[in-house]
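Appendix C: a fully annotated inverse folding record. The material below is reproduced so that readers can follow the format used throughout the book. The structure is listed first as tokens, followed by the designed sequence.
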């Protein structure tokens, strides 16, 4: 900037502050027309002056109605400035034009709506905040102005981009805060209902569902709403279904709309609303020509043809389900396939699965009647279909089964046994174990996690535990673990296995505990550090194994005598074994020493992160530091757990923890997490992408696994004496379907 430009800039700013000072001091500000005009004129000078003017023009706007036109026009020019800072400041000032002059709200909302398509995030954010400010000032006028941009038959929207932006804003910003915004409640809920009803004359199916979901959430349509309110909602849905239109058997769009609306109406019919108009339409138009609706195609073929331009014909499977759910469900599930009746068409199979997931499962309460009989029927159909499914399909079916009443909280033990049996069958626990079969191992781990909730509810985990004890734990380091879409180390799945073992250990029987304990002890010894040999320590491995050890030993305390020298006095001769167990005490001391050193460094790291957070400027930097702090906290929880579990083991007559006093570190995490760190007592470096040792794409863990634990790894990485991160060859993952096609 030249000296003359800087001088002009300074002059304009001084003039602005002079005008503002005069206006601020004036008792009757409306007499200072020249000062306000001066602010408007100065808004056409330098960048800094424009930014200041964008604040002052709306501040004094209400005092000069004769200058309202030039003031708004000048402010709009500032909104169109090239300089982002000027634009943002001008946008922020827009709500002030309406603070004491509400007649301008509609115009200002219109201006802001046009700005919803701004490319810069900070600009869009300013627009959102300005609109929210207007909604707070006058919710009725602001909503009315907003909904005009959605359009109706009388006032169609002329700009589809703007319409989409307004819909997104209403969905994401307005609807979630309805409780704070819609006051007085009944009056404003009625107002927004009327606005929505006007907008429903020209909407897509997805938009209609969005609006209906919102209306259902309003207090005026709540559980205590009178019958006329349910009648109103049914009337809205009937209008959308176009029940007054002439029916055409080949009009796929109309049939699609009719069936979707019929599903949408079901909850209100259950609450007492009349379904007469729908039933009359079905009786008059659909049932007499039922076979013609499907035309010459089978309904399942139509599920495929539905997406082919020029050939779209609608499948009336939903109507068939309503008419005869037993027969229709049985016919549908045949197309999923089983070992006895394999599906021959993969495209049709996928379409049927999608239909069942998206259309059948969500309305199970209305569809499966009588409840117990139909829930048993669909359970049997699902069980037959599980012999050849992918991992995702199996999880989908299990989630559905868990939601059924026959497997609910009050279900008898045999129902839990049935679910465990389904999962055991999917885990293929009768198959010969192959240490290099990554797909089977992946299936086993996933199924073990799936079984945990039922084990907690009293089902037996013996079959899983025996399989782990016999096949997995003895060859733990030889297991080739699978990979999947996330960039995770193979160790993650091994950790998943140990986590699952830890979580199931409080529910083991005495007999299972006695059988498994020896292998757990050997594995624990293996992962406790021996300083002289430089062996490694993986903190989360040790946490898992110590937790498992405590809960198993708590059930069979005398079994620890010959395993690790813990002599629980039972009066038996074995209590007086004379072996030297000094090594295990040294290993425990090594664990504690290393853990305390790591905790000290983690605590120091937390202090540094707090300083960094205070100094951070951008949201991105703060998010990064927040994640680091969370991972450090998880690492500290792991270390605290280890110390809490080693302390009672130093005594020659120890107590074993068998209650819930230890909260596993990953169970407390607020975000998904997987392994803490692999830290050695020797001199090995961690294997990472930076040093070329990590070249794998590994498997995503369950909900508490995966990416977060990699980050926790970094929180502990290098805090002791080193570390490693083993890699293995690529496995197939849980890939295709069933026994021969993988299981992702």
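Designed amino acids, in order:
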């Amino acid at each position: 900037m030249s000296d003359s430009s800087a001088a002009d800039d300074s002059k304009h700013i001084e003039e602005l502050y002079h005008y503002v000072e005069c206006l601020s001091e004036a008792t009757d500000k409306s007499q200072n027309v020249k000062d306000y005009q001066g602010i408007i004129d100065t808004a056409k000078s330098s960048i800094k002056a424009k930014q200041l003017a964008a604040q002052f023009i709306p501040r004094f706007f209400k005092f000069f109605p004769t200058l309202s036109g030039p003031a708004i026009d000048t402010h709009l020019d500032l909104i169109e400035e090239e300089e982002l800072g000027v634009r943002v400041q001008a946008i922020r000032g827009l709500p002030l034009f309406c603070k004491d002059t509400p007649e301008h709200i509609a115009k200002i909302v219109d201006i802001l709506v046009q700005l919803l398509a701004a490319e810069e995030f900070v600009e869009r954010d300013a627009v959102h905040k300005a609109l929210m400010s207007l909604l707070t000032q006058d919710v009725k006028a602001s909503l009315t102005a907003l909904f005009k941009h959605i359009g109706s038959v009388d006032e169609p929207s002329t700009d589809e981009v703007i319409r989409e932006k307004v819909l997104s804003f209403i969905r994401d910003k307005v609807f979630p805060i309805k409780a704070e915004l819609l006051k007085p409640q009944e009056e404003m809920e009625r107002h927004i209902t009327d606005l929505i009803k006007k907008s429903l004359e020209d909407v897509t199916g997805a938009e209609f569902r969005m609006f209906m979901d919102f209306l259902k959430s309003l207090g005026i349509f709540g559980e205590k709403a009178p019958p006329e309110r349910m009648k109103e909602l049914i009337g809205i849905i009937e209008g959308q279904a176009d029940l007054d239109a002439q029916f055409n058997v080949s009009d796929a769009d109309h049939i699609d709309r009719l069936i979707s609306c019929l599903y949408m109406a079901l909850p209100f019919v259950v609450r007492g609303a009349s379904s007469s108009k729908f039933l009359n339409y079905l009786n008059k138009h659909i049932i007499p020509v039922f076979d013609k609706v499907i035309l010459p195609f089978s309904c399942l073929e139509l599920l495929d043809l539905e997406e082919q331009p020029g050939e779209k014909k609608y499948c009336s499977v939903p109507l068939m389900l309503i008419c005869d759910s037993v027969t229709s469900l049985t016919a549908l599930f045949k197309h999923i396939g089983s070992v006895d009746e394999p599906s021959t068409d993969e495209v049709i199979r996928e379409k049927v699965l999608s239909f069942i997931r998206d259309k059948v499962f969500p309305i199970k309460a209305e569809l499966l009647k009588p409840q117990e009989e139909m829930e048993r029927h669909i359970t049997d159909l699902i069980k037959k279909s599980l012999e050849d499914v992918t991992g995702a399909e199996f999880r989908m079916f299990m989630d559905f089964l868990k939601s059924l009443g026959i497997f609910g909280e009050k279900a008898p033990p045999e129902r839990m046994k049935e679910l465990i049996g389904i999962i055991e069958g999917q885990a293929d626990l009768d198959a010969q174990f192959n240490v290099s079969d990554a797909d089977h191992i992946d299936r086993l781990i996933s199924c073990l996690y799936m079984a945990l909730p039922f084990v907690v509810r009293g089902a037996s985990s013996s079959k899983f535990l025996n399989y782990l004890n016999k096949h997995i734990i003895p060859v733990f380091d030889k297991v080739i673990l699978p990979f999947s879409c996330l960039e995770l180390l193979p160790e993650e799945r091994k950790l998943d296995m140990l986590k699952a073992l830890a979580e199931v250990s409080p529910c083991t029987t005495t007999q299972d505990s006695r059988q498994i304990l020896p292998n757990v002890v050997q594995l624990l010894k293996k992962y406790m550090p021996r300083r002289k040999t430089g062996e490694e320590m993986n903190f989360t491995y040790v946490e898992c194994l110590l937790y498992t050890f405590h809960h198993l030993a708590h059930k069979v305390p005398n079994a620890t005598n010959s395993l690790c020298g813990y002599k629980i006095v039972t009066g038996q001769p074995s209590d007086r074994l004379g072996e030297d167990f000094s090594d295990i005490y040294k290993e425990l001391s090594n664990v504690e020493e290393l853990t305390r050193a790591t905790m000290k460094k983690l605590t120091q790291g937390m202090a540094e992160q707090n300083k960094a957070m205070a100094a951070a400027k951008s949201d991105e930097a703060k998010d990064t530091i927040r994640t680091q702090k969370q991972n450090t906290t998880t690492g500290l929880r792991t270390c605290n757990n280890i110390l809490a579990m080693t302390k009672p083991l130093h005594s020659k007559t120890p107590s074993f923890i068998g209650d819930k006093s230890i909260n596993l570190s990953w169970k407390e995490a607020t975000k998904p997490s997987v392994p803490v760190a692999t830290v050695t007592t020797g001199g090995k470096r961690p294997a990472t992408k930076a040093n070329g040792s990590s070249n794998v794409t590994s498997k995503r863990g369950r909900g508490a696994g995966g990416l977060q634990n990699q980050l926790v790894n970094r929180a502990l990485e290098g805090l002791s004496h080193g570390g490693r991160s083993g890699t293995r060859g690529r496995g197939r993952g849980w890939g295709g379907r069933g026994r021969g096609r993988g299981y992702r």
